[in-house]
């Protein structure tokens, strides 16, 4: 299923940009990418990530609907094999004698996939499905009988079972007779039933989809269909096609609502289904991806009548196609899967940045919507339900909840398949779960198959499919996109490329079902069909049954490795006064901080309880769990939803996408309520704590605890179908040492009951509230901690698995003073009758405040270390306070003969630690640069002594040269480009790792680079650039390196560079190794690999092979991509009706120029700074949902360093403002203008009689789908032929005046950190100045948006009217248009901002652009263009074609 099916004109769609790109492939591309506020919160969610655990996850249905699996999971053993008229019972897995039920059998370690399912009522009009098996070998085997009209049917060799032959067949249901022809001889199966005379085998053909599908998936890989939206686009349907007769007068536009085509154009949909079936699909999906009332509400078609009709008709259309296909080929059973999409809402994320606890819809609303759809799909006759494209697991849980309810209501089941979506290479869903956590969260569903689809192409998806393959005992399904989307939202992988990319999914044994998602077509499926033919499908592994719960990450309880699960108790209003006060006061930030502190203290699960008479417990539970879900530091762990009120429990379950634990239910209200609650919990997929209560009250004695728990266990596993591993008993930890004799044995009763319950209830776990044991000594913390530690020590030995406990209230058992330990154990073990009295006496002598914090600060303890350790500490921590003194101590202590030895010894040892930590992601760039500052200061102190030593050595022996570095790297920003922040960072990082870096600066001509390489005997040369012309200059340098015979490695880096450009344009012209370096963090391992004699050959060979493949992809793409001639593109230009009042241009308040000589760096300007690119400069990137400023500060991995960096930036910014170190200058020009073709002519004045300049624009030429226009910027200016007076604005602004002096001062002080910081801040100020200036133009200077009242956040999200495209960027890709602006506004004369011959601006911290006011103006990318436009463009500009091709090189779809 592709995201084309999710397209709509929604005000609140919810999917990430990476997935939304795929939507653009459908007709309604302008629809929806995502709610900005929602995905500001959603995009950067994660901090430091744990790797997925390698243990397996059972995603099979729970024991209620499961029987034991066959001993060999991939060996056919279903009745559909027609081995017997009645299938043999499969051999059950052995179980403990005390647990005879099938559910209890699962406790022995395996949850099988096969289940005691309820197939749909027999449908006489549907064909039966059978699988014939001949297990006795042969060369050629056929099966023949009345089912085939007496015509022999060839059977296929089984890839799963060598020597076996099989064939699937569809025929009418009922009894059949058949025999086999083996190598020409008639045979029967001696092990199967025969007719009366023994000449034929006999069997009953049925339609059991569970058995048939399982049998087929054991024999071969089944094929799913491909993208529906992609195929619908090919029909170029119009609005009337979507409306049909039924919705002819409907109030809303319906184009793009693909689901309704099953009613208005069923011929189109059935035709697409048939194309996929003809291509080899075994399963086709209904066209119902948006078939819920929630999704259909975007089109005002949410009424139940409409939704039901859409889904029923969709199934009927698909069934007609499969019936025709099976009639043509009865040996290929075909199935219809009812597609259940994710809706356009999310339950796990707030659409409001200000209120992370808010949700746009409720769990119940989502469930109701899914129920309506699923009922209709089943009524229509769907064979399978496919819950797909899961980006939010809570949405999926709602869908599965609805499916289970519907199954219960209709009285039968159909196979369910589940497919999630990994959104990027973090391996997580959009809502943040790892693949394994996702599996755990949906493990309660009856999933015949589970897997992944969409978002990624096959190459990127493979590792995540492999993870699922290893973690589930269900079958595995996968249907990736046809690669990643291109610039236009399309997909470029050809059928052959796609098939090759998924080949390993088949041959590697990863999948049982394979298909295609976005961008795939019947040709893609046909190509895959050839790949999988005869390939053995993935065998299902046997899975160990464990207690598995999850948050964003999984938690698998293995007692042999995890002796005890620590459940945090502080988010409980009954257990924490601090938490209660925060909640009662509405201080949810404080409450959240308590949860975070618990996880940091080691809690593996968080208990959440709001049972307080003065609280609205449901509202509090809902709000707090929603808050926790948005906080990754807490959301990573599973939640224990704790309440004595079941409706409060349900409220918590409805907010958590992970697999929770419910605490608790009991038999207190009787068996009926107990089982009803248990079934609801199971439907939510949660584990459950069962309190040892029954109708008679709380269990206090050993016998009562065992009796009640065993009774509850039997009901849960035998009647409700609970997985025994998901049952947790709380046999009641009761207070001891109360002075009452009947309480003295409570702890011992608990220990003994625990051991017995674990033996009598296999798989069940034991938990309890540990703090209850010490309630008698409330207020005496040393005593309470001892009680908790002693109790846990003995309880764990007895079999206790987990406990609700404050980790801060537990001491190490062996550290408890012996006297206290003896007294506590006397109480806990009830060893003597006077234990309580003795304990009270001892408690009175103990200081209640004992055991507090340390009595001495260790803050400066490192200063006592040896000098070598102190130097290493200073380097790693970035502390420069003591480094000079420490280096001098090292120099004079006599241990180091030469100053160089200090560098090579302790200083490099410290920097090696820094490098290792940086490489491992445990240190971040700001820390590394601070470390470099320490290193430079240390070296600076040693330099005079080293120079003196070198001079002495030179005098003694002029031939001696001291070599003290790992290699020499020459780096430069190429000619025409003044941007160097990235290059400077690379220089620092390489310098930190003992490379000698020769930094040539910016605007460096090719000849100077080559000369420097020769002069410094460079081992590596690196080229950097930001603007597009730099790409061509890099090609020039590479050619010159080749011409002059260099062979040293060439590194390419910078914002506009790419691996593809390097592979296509640069590497072919230079025979030395040519490597694209993505960012500074990659520079060290790349250079290290290049200069390591043992690694360089393999490294360079690998890169060259990769680049060769990239070139093949590039040129194949050029051949496949279609373009329209420039004439046709102009005919299909973007049209604006300039006569409409809303499109009439506003007359500017000011014409001509307005100069800003010293624009104030005030609060308005500073508040407009977009800090996100600032952190990107420093390579600090938060993980979802903490990817943006200021959420990056919450990121576990980079947050702390980002905050430090931000604070440093604020300090420097204050210094800049207070001491006026930078000056902002700018200029704005507004001129009368009209468009003439693709050009914009600018007039001298309002008479419009004299043209003073012409701006030239470029038009899109890549072929569009449907009626989409081909845009150029000139489309947003009224044509001269309309007589409408229009205007064009332009601006140039710089904040770089004074920057050079700042940078020079920092360089003289060896302060790399500060000069890079200054450059980064100046860049941010320039962009902010452009933002503020543009706002002033809109509201005052031009005045076309006088009433605008936008926040800074809205400004940065481009919510304003009009656009300001910059030359050199996607909408205005030609830098040579800048001189027109400079000449017209006299920019250099008025502001001092210069333009170089390569069209770079000086100072570098400068921004320029055009200003369009039209309400319908929009950003777009011109993309690749044809030679016909290039020639026309060159002629219009009066420029030679060769020169135009040089400037437009990256845009050409041909090689000039």
Defining key terms:
single chain; 1456 residues; alpha/beta; eight-stranded parallel β-sheet; 48 helices; 41 strands; 39% helix; globular; disordered N terminus
Question: Can you tell me about this structure?
Answer:
With 1456 residues, the chain is α/β, with parallel strands linked by helices. Helix content is 39%, strand content 14%. An eight-stranded parallel sheet has the order 9-16-15-14-13-12-11-10, with helices on both faces. Strands 27-26-23-22-21-20-19-28 form an eight-stranded parallel sheet, covered by helices on one side. Helix 17 runs antiparallel to helix 18, helix 31 packs across helix 32 and helix 35 packs across helix 37. The longest helix is centred in the middle third of the chain and has 32 residues. The radius of gyration is 36 Å and the shape is globular. The N terminus is likely disordered.
Spatial ordering of strands, largest sheet: 9-16-15-14-13-12-11-10
Number of helices: 48
End-to-end Cα distance, whole Å, is 40 Å
Strand content: 5-15%
State the gist of this model.
With 1456 residues, this protein is an alpha/beta fold. The chain has 48 helices and 41 strands. Residues 1-115, 849-858 and 921-926 have low confidence and may be disordered.
Itemize the secondary structure elements and their pairings.
Elements: H1 17-23, H2 36-42, H3 102-105, E1 128-134, E2 141-145, E3 153-154, E4 156-157, E5 165-171, E6 174-182, E7 185-187, E8 201-205, H4 209-219, E9 222-223, H5 228-234, H6 239-243, H7 261-264, H8 266-279, E10 283-285, H9 293-296, H10 304-328, E11 335-340, H11 363-380, E12 384-390, H12 393-410, E13 416-420, H13 435-441, E14 447-457, H14 458-471, E15 475-481, H15 495-507, E16 513-514, H16 522-532, E17 547-550, E18 554-557, E19 565-572, H17 577-584, H18 588-600, E20 605-609, H19 617-629, H20 632-635, E21 639-642, H21 646-653, E22 661-665, H22 671-684, E23 687-691, E24 693-694, E25 697-698, H23 702-720, E26 727-730, H24 746-760, E27 765-766, H25 781-798, E28 802-804, H26 818-828, H27 835-845, H28 867-877, H29 883-892, H30 899-919, H31 925-956, E29 968-973, H32 981-992, E30 996-999, H33 1006-1015, E31 1020-1024, H34 1029-1043, E32 1050-1053, H35 1059-1066, E33 1074-1076, H36 1080-1091, H37 1096-1120, H38 1126-1131, E34 1152-1159, H39 1163-1167, H40 1172-1177, H41 1199-1218, E35 1223-1236, E36 1239-1243, E37 1251-1256, E38 1286-1297, H42 1299-1308, ...
Parallel strand pairs: 9-16, 10-11, 11-12, 12-13, 13-14, 14-15, 15-16, 19-20, 19-28, 20-21, 21-22, 22-23, 23-26, 26-27, 29-30, 29-31, 31-32, 32-33
Antiparallel strand pairs: 1-5, 2-3, 2-6, 4-5, 6-7, 6-8, 17-18, 24-25, 34-35, 35-36, 35-38, 36-37, 38-41, 39-40
Helix pairs in contact: 8-10, 8-16, 10-11, 11-12, 14-15, 15-16, 17-18, 19-21, 22-23, 23-24, 24-25, 25-26, 26-27, 28-29, 28-30, 28-31, 29-31, 30-31, 31-32, 32-36, 32-43, 33-34, 35-37, 41-43, 42-43, 47-48
């Amino acid at each position: 299923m592709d995201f084309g099916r999710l397209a709509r004109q929604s005000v609140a769609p919810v999917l990430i940009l990476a997935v939304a790109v795929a939507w653009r492939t459908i007709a309604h591309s302008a629809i929806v990418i995502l709610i900005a506020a929602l995905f500001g919160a959603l995009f950067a969610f994660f901090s430091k990530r744990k790797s997925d655990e390698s243990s397996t996850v059972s995603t099979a249905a729970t024991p209620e609907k499961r029987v034991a699996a066959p001993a060999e999971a991939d060996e056919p053993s279903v009745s559909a094999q027609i081995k017997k008229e009645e299938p043999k019972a499969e051999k059950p897995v052995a179980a403990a004698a005390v647990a005879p039920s099938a559910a209890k059998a699962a406790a022995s370690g395996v949850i099988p996939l096969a289940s005691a399912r309820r197939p749909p009522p027999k449908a006489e009009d549907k064909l039966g499905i059978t699988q014939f098996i001949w297990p006795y070998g042969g060369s050629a085997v056929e099966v023949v009988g009345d089912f085939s009209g007496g015509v022999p049917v060839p059977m296929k060799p089984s890839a799963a079972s060598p020597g076996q032959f099989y064939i699937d067949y569809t025929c009418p249901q009922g009894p059949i007779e058949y025999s086999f022809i083996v190598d020409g001889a008639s045979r029967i199966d001696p092990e199967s039933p025969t007719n009366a005379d023994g000449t034929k085998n006999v069997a009953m053909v049925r339609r059991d989809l569970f058995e048939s599908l399982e049998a087929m998936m054991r024999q071969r890989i089944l094929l799913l269909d491909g993208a529906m939206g992609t195929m619908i686009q090919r029909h170029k349907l119009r609005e009337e096609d979507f409306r049909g007769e039924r919705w002819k007068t409907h109030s809303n536009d319906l184009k793009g609502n693909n689901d309704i085509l099953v009613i208005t154009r069923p011929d189109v949909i059935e035709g697409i289904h048939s194309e996929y079936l003809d291509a080899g699909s075994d399963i086709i999906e209904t066209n119902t991806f948006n078939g819920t009332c929630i999704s259909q509400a975007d089109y005002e078609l949410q009424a139940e009548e409409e939704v039901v009709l859409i889904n029923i008709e969709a199934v009927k259309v698909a069934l007609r196609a499969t019936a025709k296909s099976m009639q043509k080929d009865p040996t290929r059973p075909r199935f219809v899967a009812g597609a259940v999409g994710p809706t356009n809402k999310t339950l796990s994320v707030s659409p409001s940045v200000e209120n992370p606890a808010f949700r746009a819809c409720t769990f119940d609303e989502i469930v109701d919507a899914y129920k309506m759809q699923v009922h209709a799909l089943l009524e229509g006759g769907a064979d399978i339900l496919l819950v797909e494209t899961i980006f939010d697991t809570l949405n999926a849980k709602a869908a599965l909840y609805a499916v289970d309810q519907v199954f219960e209501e209709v009285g039968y089941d159909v196979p369910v398949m589940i497919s999630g979506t990994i959104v990027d290479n973090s391996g997580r869903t959009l809502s943040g779960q790892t693949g394994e956590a996702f599996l755990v969260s949906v493990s309660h569903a009856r999933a015949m198959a589970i897997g992944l689809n969409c978002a990624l192409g096959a190459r990127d998806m493979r590792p995540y499919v492999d993870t699922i393959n290893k973690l589930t005992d269900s079958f595995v399904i996968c249907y990736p996109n046809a690669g990643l989307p291109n610039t236009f939202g399309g997909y470029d992988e050809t059928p052959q490329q796609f098939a090759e990319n998924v080949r390993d999914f088949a041959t590697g044994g990863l999948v049982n079902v394979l298909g295609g998602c976005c961008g795939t077509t019947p040709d893609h499926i046909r190509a895959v069909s050839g790949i999988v033919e005869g390939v053995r499908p993935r065998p299902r592994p046997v899975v160990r049954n464990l207690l598995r719960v999850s948050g964003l990450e999984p938690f698998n309880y293995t007692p042999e490795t995890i002796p005890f699960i620590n459940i945090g108790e502080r988010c409980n209003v009954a257990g924490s006064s601090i938490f209660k006060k925060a909640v009662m006061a509405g201080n949810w930030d404080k409450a959240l901080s308590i949860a975070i502190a618990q996880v940091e203290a080691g809690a593996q699960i968080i208990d959440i309880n709001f049972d307080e008479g003065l609280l609205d417990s449901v509202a509090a539970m809902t709000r707090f769990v929603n808050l926790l879900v948005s906080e990754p530091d807490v959301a990573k762990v599973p939640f224990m939803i704790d309440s004595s009120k079941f409706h409060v429990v349900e409220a918590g379950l409805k907010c958590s996408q992970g697999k929770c634990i419910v605490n608790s239910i009991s038999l207190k209200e009787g068996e009926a309520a107990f089982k009803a609650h248990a079934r609801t919990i199971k439907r939510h997929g949660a584990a459950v704590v069962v309190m040892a209560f029954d109708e008679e009250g709380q269990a206090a004695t050993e016998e009562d605890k065992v009796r009640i728990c065993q009774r509850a266990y039997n009901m849960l596993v035998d009647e409700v179908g609970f997985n025994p591993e998901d049952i947790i008993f709380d046999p009641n930890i009761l207070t001891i040492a109360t002075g009452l004799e009947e309480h003295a044995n409570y702890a011992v009763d608990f220990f003994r009951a625990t051991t017995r319950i674990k033996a009598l209830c296999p798989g069940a776990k034991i938990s309890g509230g540990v703090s209850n044991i010490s309630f008698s000594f409330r207020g005496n913390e040393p005593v309470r901690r001892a009680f908790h530690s002693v109790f846990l020590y003995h309880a764990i030995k007895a079999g206790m698995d987990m406990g609700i406990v404050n980790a801060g209230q537990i001491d190490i058992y062996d550290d408890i003073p012996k006297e206290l330990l003896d007294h506590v154990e006397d109480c806990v073990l009830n060893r003597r009758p006077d234990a309580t009295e003795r304990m009270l006496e001892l408690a009175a002598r103990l200081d209640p405040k004992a055991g507090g914090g340390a009595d001495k600060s260790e803050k400066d303890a490192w200063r006592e270390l040896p000098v070598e350790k102190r130097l290493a500490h200073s380097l790693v921590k970035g502390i420069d306070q003591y480094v000079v003194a420490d280096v001098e101590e090292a120099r004079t202590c006599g241990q180091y003969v030469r100053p160089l030895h200090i560098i090579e010894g302790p200083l490099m040892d410290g920097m090696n630690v820094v490098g290792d930590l940086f490489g491992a992601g445990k240190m971040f760039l700001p820390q590394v640069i601070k470390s470099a500052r320490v290193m430079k200061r240390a070296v600076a102190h040693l330099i005079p002594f080293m120079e003196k030593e070198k001079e002495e050595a030179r005098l003694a022996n002029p031939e001696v040269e001291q070599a003290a570095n790992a290699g020499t790297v020459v780096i430069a920003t190429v000619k025409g480009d003044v941007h160097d922040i990235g290059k400077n960072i690379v220089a620092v990082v390489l310098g930190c790792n003992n490379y000698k870096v020769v930094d040539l600066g910016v605007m460096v001509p090719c000849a100077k680079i080559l000369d420097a390489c020769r002069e410094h005997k460079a081992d590596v040369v690196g080229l950097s650039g930001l603007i597009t012309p730099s790409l061509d200059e890099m090609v020039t340098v590479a050619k010159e390196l080749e011409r002059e015979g260099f062979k040293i490695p060439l590194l390419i880096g910078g914002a506009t560079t790419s691996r593809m450009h390097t592979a296509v344009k640069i590497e072919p012209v230079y025979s030395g190794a040519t490597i694209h370096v993505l960012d500074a963090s990659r520079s060290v391992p790349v250079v290290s690999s290049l200069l390591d004699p043992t690694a360089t050959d393999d490294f360079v060979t690998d890169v060259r092979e990769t680049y060769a493949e990239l070139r093949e992809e590039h040129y194949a793409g050029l051949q496949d991509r279609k373009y329209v001639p420039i004439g046709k593109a102009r005919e299909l230009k973007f049209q604006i009706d300039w006569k409409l009042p809303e499109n009439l241009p506003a007359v500017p308040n000011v014409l001509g120029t307005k100069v800003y000589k010293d624009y104030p760096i005030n609060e308005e300007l500073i508040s407009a700074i977009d800090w996100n690119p600032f952190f990107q400069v420093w390579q600090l990137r938060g993980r979802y949902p903490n990817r943006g400023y200021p959420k990056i500060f919450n990121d576990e991995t980079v947050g702390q360093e980002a905050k430090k960096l931000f604070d440093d930036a604020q300090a420097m910014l204050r210094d800049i403002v207070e001491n006026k170190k930078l000056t902002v200058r700018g200029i704005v020009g507004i001129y009368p203008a009209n468009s003439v073709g693709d050009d914009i002519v600018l007039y001298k004045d309002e008479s419009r009689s004299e043209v003073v300049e012409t701006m030239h624009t470029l038009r899109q030429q890549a072929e569009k789908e449907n009626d989409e226009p081909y845009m150029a910027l000139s489309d947003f200016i009224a044509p001269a032929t309309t007589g409408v007076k229009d205007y064009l604005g332009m601006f140039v602004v710089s904040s770089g005046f004074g920057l050079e002096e700042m940078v020079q001062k920092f360089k003289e002080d060896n302060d790399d950190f500060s000069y890079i910081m200054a450059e980064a801040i100046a860049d941010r100020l320039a962009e902010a100045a452009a933002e503020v200036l543009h706002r002033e133009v809109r509201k005052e200077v031009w005045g076309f948006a006088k009433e605008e009242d936008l926040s800074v956040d809205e400004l940065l999200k481009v919510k304003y009217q009009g656009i300001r495209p910059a030359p050199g960027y996607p909408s205005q890709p030609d830098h040579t248009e800048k001189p027109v602006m400079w000449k017209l506004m006299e920019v250099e004369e008025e502001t001092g901002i210069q333009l170089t011959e390569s069209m770079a601006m000086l100072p570098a911290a400068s921004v320029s652009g055009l200003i369009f006011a039209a309400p319908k103006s929009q950003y777009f990318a011109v993309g690749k263009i044809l030679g016909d436009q290039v020639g026309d463009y060159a002629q219009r500009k009066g420029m030679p074609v060769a020169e135009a091709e040089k400037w437009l090189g990256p845009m050409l779809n041909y090689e000039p």
